Amino acid sequence: MDKSTLQRTFRNEVNCKIDVEHIGGERYAIFIPCELEGERELRIVLWRDTGGRWWLTDECRTFRHQPKMGTTVLYGIEIRLEVLEDVSGGDLKLFISALVSIIRGMERLSYENNQSQRFIRKGTWI
Fold it and tell me: Which residues of the chain carry a pLDDT beneath 70?
């Protein structure tokens, strides 16, 4: 698998603005443009383990960039997807969809937490 093949596959099947960068060994960084709060792009890594299996991972980035909610900080949680067939845009689309759903859910929870904190500070209980 090489960078140009991956980039061509992902651009044809997912988004024409995807960039792929070889980051060493059998590891590739995939940059996907997005319009999420505070993010200009998603960075996903495609890598091959010693058993020959391909994986997509966020390398713990999804939760790292989310706002702190109360005293709970979600850090060090890696999201992975094993690529069961040949690497294709379908796997990448699924992984992107999962990450976007998690990010939007975390943003919603953060907003609701901030609203609750505001009511508590004002002495107003729901």
Answer: 35-39, 64-75, 110-126
Domain boundaries, the chain: 3-121
If residue 96 lies in a helix (H) or strand (E), which one and from where to where?
helix 89-122
Crossing angle for the helix pair 89-122 and 3-13, to the nearest 10 degrees: 70
Other CB atoms within 10 A of residue 75 CB? 10
Cβ contacts of residue 108 below 8 Å, gap of 6+? none
Cα(104)–Cα(117) distance, rounded to whole angstroms?
Answer: 20
H-run or E-run covering 63:
helix 61-64
- How far apart CA 72 and CA 83 sit, in angstroms, is 32
Going by their DSSP bridges, the two strands 54-57 and 80-83 should be labelled as antiparallel
Place of tokens 């991972």: 57
| Amino acid occupying residue 21 | E
Query: Cβ distance 22 to 38 under 8 Å?
Result: no
Distance (Å, rounded) from C-alpha 88 to C-alpha 92? 7
Question: Residue 82 and residue 40: Cα distance in Å, rounded?
Answer: 25
